[in-house]
Design goal:
Number of helices: 10
Strand content: 15-25%
Shape: globular
Order of helices and strands: HHHEEHHHHEEEEEEHEEHEH
Distance between the termini: 62 Å
Largest sheet: 5 strands, antiparallel
């Protein structure tokens, strides 16, 4: 069965405990062990309930045939002292997942990790004494439009992981001249066929977002890396569509009408995770979003033409009206 990373870490922690037969393991003991494993592996402070561990044990029994028994209705142990999750061979489903990953990752050959994927799969093939199918091309991802800038991905990714500053030569869309500055990268993000990197712009003394296709040259810098203290980099883009907008800009409650023909599409593919349906009927659907009204949001509204209408706030409605009038004026002239 498919596993999320947290569950897999808990399973391994439980397995490690039950293989240590020098002590007896209660549910509270296993909860502590799983909590410590999550904290060590991914820095998670997730609170694990008694029910979660009980469910994990049942899944281990059912899906991995783990010989887990309970003694005195309190102590958990393996009846087979030689059992270990690490000794369980890959299933056909596991092999198929590896094949899917291989197919998808073929588009990201810039990363050394991707080039290492085939080597690792070869090791897996030896361990399961079978051969996985070669990439068949049955999964196609259109990356032609994001080729520009992709060459910078490996060095930026390495700078993020190894925590060092970069010297960047950059030419934005709005500047005629190139700019050179030190930049501490935090997070890579792909949006609308472009790669972006969030980080600290040392010359500006603030967070900045760079488009990778506008980077002319990049190298390691001797400037000390700037570590974000109060900035939650993983939630930085959570209150917006796309990438533009400052972290200091406040989100707004935006109400939008969707016409009946576009309603099924917007219901099945929400504009944002904050989307809520306020009403839906024969005259269309009304939704609300709590986001920063940035450039990408306005562009999304305009792309739907007469299929949507911003009902509130009025400040955003006026921006949309102005842009529509400007666009109409181009055709009238």
């Amino acid at each position: 069965m498919p596993l999320n990373r947290h569950a897999l870490i808990r399973y391994r922690a439980i397995d490690a405990c039950l293989r240590r037969r020098s002590r007896r393991w209660t549910l509270p003991d296993l909860i502590v062990a799983c909590s410590n494993a999550l904290a060590e592996a991914i820095g998670s402070n997730e609170e694990i309930s008694k029910r979660t561990i009980q469910r994990d044990i049942e899944n281990l029994r059912k899906d991995w045939e783990a010989p887990i028994e309970v003694e005195e209705q309190k102590y958990y142990y393996y009846t087979d002292p030689n059992f270990s999750l690490e000794k369980i061979p890959l299933t056909d489903e596991d092999a198929f997942v590896l094949l899917e990953i291989r197919e998808i990752m073929q588009s990201f050959q810039e990363f050394d990790q991707v080039r290492e994927l085939d080597r690792l799969i070869q090791k897996v093939e030896k361990s399961i004494k079978t051969s996985l199918p070669r990439p068949s091309g049955h999964i196609q991802i259109d990356h032609m439009s994001i080729v520009a800038g992709r060459k910078h991905l490996p060095v930026i990714y390495r700078a993020i992981i190894e925590i060092f500053t970069l010297e960047v030569q950059y030419q934005s869309f709005h500047q005629a001249n190139k700019d050179c500055f030190a930049f501490s990268p935090y997070l890579l993000k792909a949006y609308n066929s472009r790669w972006y990197v969030l980080g600290h712009h040392h010359s500006h003394g603030s967070e900045s977002i760079l488009a990778l296709d506008r980077i002319q040259n990049i190298s390691q810098s001797h400037v000390e890396y700037h570590t974000p203290v109060s900035l939650n980099i993983f939630n930085y883009f959570s209150n917006r569509i796309g990438v533009s907008g400052s972290s200091t800009t406040q989100s707004e409650d935006i109400v939008i009408w969707i016409n009946p023909s576009q309603t099924p599409y917007v219901k099945s593919r929400p504009w944002h995770s904050s989307q809520k349906i306020l009403s839906v009927g024969e005259t269309g659907m009304i939704i609300s979003l709590k986001i920063i009204p940035n450039y990408e949001f306005i562009s999304r509204v305009l792309s739907f033409g007469d299929g949507v209408k911003v009902l509130s706030p009025s400040s955003i409605t006026e921006i949309v009206i102005e842009k529509l009038q400007t666009a109409t004026g181009l055709y009238k002239s």
